[in-house]
Structure formats: C-alpha cells, structure tokens
Amino acid sequence: MQIHVINPNTTRGMTDTIATAAQGIAAPDTRISATQPAHGPVSIESHFDEAISAVGVLEEVMAGERQGVDAYIIACFGDPGLLAARELTRAPVIGIAEAAFHMAALISTRFSVVTTLGRTGIIAEHLLDQYGFRHHCRRVRAAEIPVLDLEADGDAALDRIIGEGRRARDEDGIGAIVLGCGGMADLTDEIAEAVGLPVVEGVTAAVKLAEALAGLGLGTSKVGDLAFPRPKAFTGRFEHLSHGAGLR
C-alpha cells in the first residue's frame, strides 16, 4: 500500500517531520511518500494561505493518480482542498483535522484542541461545526506560536504547547487533547507524558485511517458531489488542468 502524504505548505523541514511521523506509525507493508507543492505559502495561517495552498494540493493528487497511489493525506489542520481532492480520485483522501476529531471522539466524550495561533483556532472551530464534532470539543486553545517556530524554536514552542495542554486538562473537563497543526507530528509522546492525557495527532491518525479504509476496500464514492469533475477547458496559468487532467 502506498500512502501519499501532502504537506500543503512549501517548507521542506516540516515535510520531513511529517514524513518521519507517518512512516513511524505505518504498518510494515505500507509505503509512505511525502511531498509538498512547488509553489505556495511557507506556512498556512489564514484563509488566504489555505486558498492558495489548495491548488498545490490538487496538483499533488493529480500527480499521485498517475503513480497509482492507494490513499492520500492532507497534512495541514485546516484540511485545505479536501473535498476538491476527493473529487479527483477513487482512493481515500483524509484530512488530518477530520482524522484527529474522529479518533479523539472514539476515546473520550470530550476533548480540547491545542493549536498554534488564535486565528487558526477559529478555522478549527469552523471545521468542528462542518464535521459534526462541535459538541465533543470543549475548547480550541492557541499556544500563540507561528507555525514556523515549531521548526525554528522547537523547545520554546513545545513548552508553550505543553502549558496550554495542562491548562486544558485542568480547566476544560476533557479526556483527550487534539494537536492542531501538522508541524506537531513529532511531539505527541512528549506532550502526552507531560500533560497526562491521551494526545491525538492528525498525521498519525490519518495514516491508520487510510490503512483501514484501503484494507476494507473502501474508496471515495464517485456518485453525487464527489464524482469526477466534468471535463472542461481552463485558461491561463491553469490550462494544465483542462479536460479532467487524465483522472481515473
């Protein structure tokens, strides 16, 4: 089984962190390939960043279709381009926020999310509503660290995340914590030990869900709104997306 993990931003170090976490949790016969768009934001911290990054995500899915990828993971907690990506393939496509919410709800009746910035916390709240997990989540908390600080100043960032996790444990009446950024993929064990609660991280959760769906023979439905996009011409910089781009 090949799972293609897409980091929607263009920071190579973060892609490597995500790839290591994904491969570390994958089954022995699962092959992880990890990549990032050639163009786009170096980090994703706004609706604008998400909109720009979604095009790169879709191009990566199209490339994966030519390689026969079995499942895809969108490794940004905003799940940018998720439904559009599902339109492009019969393979499962899993966003790490949706994966983490599902897993957290299976092990605890209430959880809180610890993310990077307050403004991205609002985006996470939108996703909780969209995915139907709002009643499971007690609070979305922000450590108020820029995403790239996870790479540039990792120790300080980890301390702030742990501090927010402890406040969530003590104040929110929860049984689990969800980490709200793909760049936290390598921090799960340290945070869980420091906080004393189960910690769900979306990249690793998505890998196990992808393996489960593929193992069950379940893929993206091609009936209804997730059917392949109707072939049509695109112009200008998007001309290469014309006529369905060889979708299968």
From TrEMBL:
This is Aspartate/glutamate racemase family protein. It comes from the Bacteria. Belongs to the HyuE racemase family. Pfam families: Asp_Glu_race.
